[in-house]
Design goal:
The chain contains twelve helices and seven strands. The protein is of the alpha/beta class and about 260 residues long.
Length: about 260
């Protein structure tokens, strides 16, 4: 088996572990999100570094719908330049600055029945712990998507001594092995091919699909960003406007409007 096939094989194993071990947690997370959105609340999404991917995977993109509020801090996620101004070193440094999470959340207004959905493969970096602790201090439920293997094998970094699973009300394992990289190449000392993207994206979309199912069953079907391949170009453009208008109306409260 060459390295490409090995990566696909290992990725399939991650998906199988999610299917056999995480459906109950995904169900509970989806129920909380559905009740939040049905009650005109927001599911606040947060992640730093690579975990920004799953924030944007949830909303906005095709096959997604309003009710989720992405909180993306560019200083923690803007990595494309790698070095120089706004480089990766700065972002990785800022992930470990305690107090930054609370400072970020202070920019928003939260109210029941809001909840939080946080993404962090390691579950230990200080900023995401700050956000989780602040959300709980304010009285809001927290869902965490982490690699439990990586998290349990890592030392806590936050001064509280807590990791994300210690704080969250619902913990979903992305089922990625600790260290993330999946493939050992003969003659190469270090493994390559991270798997957390596969696991966390699968969890994200499983939650999204189940939330859509639950909202529809409640008589509150979501306004879905839908491709023109399904409904035609004109209808798709109209749907985008409807979706963004609905999103704008929902998030006005978080900016104190």
């Amino acid at each position: 088996m060459n390295s490409a096939f090995e990566y696909i094989h290992q990725s399939q194993a991650i998906l199988e572990r999610i299917q056999t071990t995480q459906i109950d947690a995904i169900e509970r997370a989806a129920e909380l999100c559905a009740q939040t959105i049905a009650g005109d609340g927001l599911v606040h999404l947060f992640g730093t570094g690579h975990s920004r991917i799953f924030v944007e995977e949830m909303f906005p993109r095709h096959g997604s719908f309003p009710g989720f509020h992405p909180i993306v801090e560019l200083s923690l996620t803007f990595h494309n330049v790698v070095v120089g101004a706004n480089g990766q070193r700065q972002a990785m440094f800022l992930e470990h600055v305690e107090g930054l999470g609370q400072t970020i959340l202070r920019n928003f207004v939260f109210s029941p029945p809001d909840c939080f959905l946080l993404f962090s493969n390691s579950g230990i970096n200080e900023v995401v712990i700050d956000v989780a602790l602040e959300a709980k201090r304010l009285g809001y439920p927290v869902i965490a998507v982490v690699s439990l293997d990586h998290c349990t094998r890592s030392a806590a970094l936050h001064s509280s001594g807590k990791k994300l699973p210690d704080i969250a009300d619902i913990v979903i394992d992305n089922c990625t092995p600790g260290g993330d990289a999946l493939v050992n190449v003969p003659g190469l000392a270090d493994p390559v091919g991270p798997g957390s993207t596969i696991g966390a994206a699968a969890v994200t979309n499983a939650i999204k699909c189940l939330v859509a199912e639950k909202l529809t069953a409640l008589g509150k079907p979501p306004i879905v960003l839908t491709s023109g391949l399904f409904i035609g170009s004109a209808a798709s453009k109209k749907r985008f406007d409807e979706c963004y208008d609905d999103y704008r109306a929902r998030i006005r409260k978080v900016y104190g409007c």
